[in-house]
Amino acid sequence: MDTPNSLVRDISPPAKRRRASKDTVSSRPEDDSKTSQASRIEPTLAAIEAGRAKIENHLAYFSEYLSKASRKTEEGFTRLPIKKFRKLYKTNSHEQGSHFVIHQHNHPIAGVHYDLRLQFSNSSSVSWSVPKGLPGNPNSKTLGRMAVETRVHNFWNHLIESASPNSGSLLIWDTGTYSVLPRKVAKDGPPSPQTTDDDDTDGEDMRAPAYNTDKRPENEKLIQAFQTRYIRLCLHGTRLPPNYTVTLRLPSANDVSKYNPDDPRPTSRRKRSATKGGPKAKEDFVDTHSDDDEDLQTRRNNAYPGSTNSIGSIHQRQWFMSLDMRSCGFVQGSTGKWGHDGKGGGFETFFVRGRDVERSVVTGRLAREVEEDEGVEDFVGRQGWVAIEL
Fold first, then answer.
1. What is the pLDDT of residues 140-195, one digit of tens each?
2. What residue numbers bound the domain in which 180 lies?
3. For residue 25, is it within any domain?
4. Is the sign of the CA dihedral 271, 277, 281, 286 positive or negative?
5. β-strand 245-249 against 185-186: which pairing, if any?
6. Where does the DNA ligase D 3'-phosphoesterase domain start and stop, copy by copy (predicted)?
7. Is residue 240 a part of any domain in this protein?
8. Fewest beta carbons within 10 Å, which of 84, 127, 198, 258?
9. Number of domains in the chain
10. Which distant-in-sequence residues (6+ apart) come within 8 Å of 268 by Cβ?
């Protein structure tokens, strides 16, 4: 049976309509012949993603593919050279690896969203779909982000950039390694072994340990933090600023521990209800999977073939993500605003602006350029996505 991957759904997109060329200005590939050659690499990318073709060396295959699809970008745009891309993946290709990737997924049904995947074993990664992308403004009116748990993916999925009419486009927004920081503790006591709905990452009654004495591998710390439903995550990426740290927490009301994969699942749009401590702005989330179309074993295990759900991931649990201000290096002023500490801490505000603006940190491509390179000329994504810029 064909294997879905990276939030792929086997249904047709809306009625085809060519995107107006005046909306965007396409940059040209570094070498047009390279791009055409990339689309002819055998086996095809589509066959590998669908599970129709198996390869032994995913790193070699995708490195060659992405190298030939690379495009020139404006000076100043941060890129990860293919050589470093290969080294990053290779050095984490073991049981204690701590690799991460953030994919921008322009899906025909779910629309634009950003998939955060964290390696927790030699073969597997836990995954969240973040509809609005990662937060980059410490003084935003919308500090929280919804982060929806998805299927456990194969580690080699971290290498993918692709496009098809059914799945839309997928590009690497950022990639690197992660660290799991110690849980913050109350000034008058030890940390709780499990999160509560009242936990406040940057509350005045909380402090971070002076230093981290936990010498365990980062993936082991991730697995333990995942079980407590509270993760302090520092991402060492290519485009993300130094010391970029977020917290992921799962409110007890959202901790659905029992799910029967044989039961039908609703696929209609769902709006998150207001939850204490969560994002202030309501965000739409559309399940990009049709469970009726998925292999029963995949649903039972919540893991794609080749990966193993040993971390205990549960499909569709809604976590909340927010910036960890102090760990990022920000200090709070007398007005309540967060700013630089004067010692190099903090970072310049950034915004995630969606498919028409965001480029791959590896190939430099926009979403529509990934689609063009794969021959998906008439793709029409879901409209209405708006960046959070306040």
1. 998 889 999 999 999 999 999 999 888 889 999 999 999 999 987 655 555 555 44
2. 21-195+207-373
3. yes
4. negative
5. unpaired
6. 103-246
7. yes
8. 258
9. 1
10. none
